[in-house]
Amino acid sequence: MDFLHDILIARLNYWIYVILMMIGLHAMIAKNNLIKKLIGMSIFQTAIILFFVSVGVKDGGTIPIVSHHGHDDAHAETAHADDAGEAAGHVDGHGEIDPDAHDNPLPHVLMLTAIVVGVATLGVGLAVSQKIYREYGTLEENELLEKIRSTDG
Amino acid sequence: MADHAPAILLIAPLFAAIAVTLAGLRRPARGAEGPDREAGDDSVEFPPFQEDKVCFMLTLGALTVSLVAALTMLGQVIDRGVVRYFVGNWTSPLGVGIELRVDHLNALALVMIATVALLAAFYSHRRVEDETPGKSPQFYAMFLLCAMGLMGMTVTGDAFNLYVLLEVAALSGYALVAMGDKRAAVAAYNYIIIGTIGASFYLLGVGYLYIKTGSLNMAGIQEVIAGGGLAGSRTIQVAFILIVLGVWIKMAFFPFCAWLPNAYSHAPSSSACLLAPLVTKVSIYVMIRMMLTVFGPAFVFEAVDWHGAVVWLASIGIVVASLIALAQTELKKMLGFLIVAEVGYMVGGAWLANHNGMVGAIYHILSDAFMTLCMFLAAGILIHRTKREDIAGLTDLYRKMPLSMAAFTLAALSMIGVPPTCGFFSKYFLIRGGIEAGQWQYVAALLFASLVNAIMFFRIFEKAYFGELSSEAPELEAEGEDDGYDHRVDMPPAFREAPLSMVAPLLIASVGLLFIGLNTREIVTVIEQTLNLFALAGGGA
Questions:
Q1: What residues does B198 pair with on adjacent strands?
Q2: pTM for this structure?
């Protein structure tokens, strides 16, 4: 059971992101419909976002908002931090703030940007799909390739 | 002001892109009627033209500011060493704040990017309305954003910031490609799918780096890896593989190159002139930056022992791409495959794991950017004038368009590697590196590619010099819009030369090839300033 725990339970977030990512990658490469490919792309990007978000979370950590600067912190439970948390949490210089009691906000903030990027990519992808549909009247890749071959020789 | 050069470099095109978009809003949406450029650029009676002109001027102005900022930084770096700029003046001990960092390596790359973008913008002036009717404000906005993204990727010292700017450049690049001909949308779609996979792999790699090192600052990551003895860490190795894979997909390294030729040959020529010289080169710069600054040569060449395999892959890529290029009948497609071969040169050179190979790879980033710019500018002009995309249509051009063909010839000689041009010197360093590393297959591939290039370009020279005017030629010439073609004998042969605003950038770029070639010693000295910090084999001369 130790084995199972180490491989599966302790790394559940990694498994989830890898499985989601593979689903997305499969859809991007193997699906015939251009919109389904874009859906796959969104799943692919979301998997990475999940990965980052899960990395920032700590056992017993709370939202990283320091309301009364200086005399924090009631949540000084024995919390377990991963490498990232140790390195980037509020270390030293902030008095009594306990980094272990707060989730690491940095990966979450990064992901705000990544979400924006993902939405923008999806938007461009849909716009281009629309253009393809206007030019060729189809969104199925095999029909599209046939039409390209027949027009361009 | 000079202290803020790294920020000004990015802010100028960013704000100009917003201004251009706003200027475009005032303009009523128009159909596909191509406006008549003959009417003269100074015509006041057509308000839409005015807005185009405003957009063009804003673009030129912003890129000029960027170029000045880049030159300023090059001067500062040569005088005083590395320039560090903390955005918002927020320095964080953990490397969380965004840092812009300029050393000798990216100072050169920034000057190159700003120059190429400026020349491409000049060229686009005449072509935008033909190629993307009614959309020139949008075109210039995308153009500026793409240039900003590329410069940002180069100047940033922050690994996550690089991802964001990579996507800014890529997203505007997708839009620039999609503005092209009928098939462009399909090419752009494939580019989006492949490009997103590449960028996502990069992001994932950055995630692993952050988990292990707790820093996003490139120098900070290197400190942790080298100082903490993390070279053997599985996490760091996974991060390295993901990042390198992502960047390879972005730069169209050999097995991942299917998207590139289609995207660049169907894009409007004014977009292709910006994207083709820069996107792949900047990705290679990112790869080298990752190898040297983030992971460090000790990790890349010793802890992970695949540089031999990568050089093999590059060699195979060079040979295959050159052969496919030889088989192409369309000029732009051929150039697309040549870019793939050139990417092989640079990746192979960087992974030779010695000083000369790295110098060659970095020097080739500069020279190849200008060669590709020259090639695509010339291809744009030739296709615009002859109205034919295939190589067989390039008959009798030396008489008709001597200036364009002279520049094209110079670029072709540089691609082949004839001495006074920069192509020779990059091949010289790369081959020397290959010999020192004992990677003979890479040396053979380089020589083979030069041979194939020679065959390819001399085939075009022959057509253009000796090719008979085909029977269709008069009819084709009659289509030439603004030069009132006539067959009268007294007409000077240069009469069919393209407009000056198109030829001038081409000529400047081709002179640039000679300039880089003749200043090889200075440029290599600058490159070595940075490289000597990394103690590559055979360096420190």
A1: none
A2: 0.86
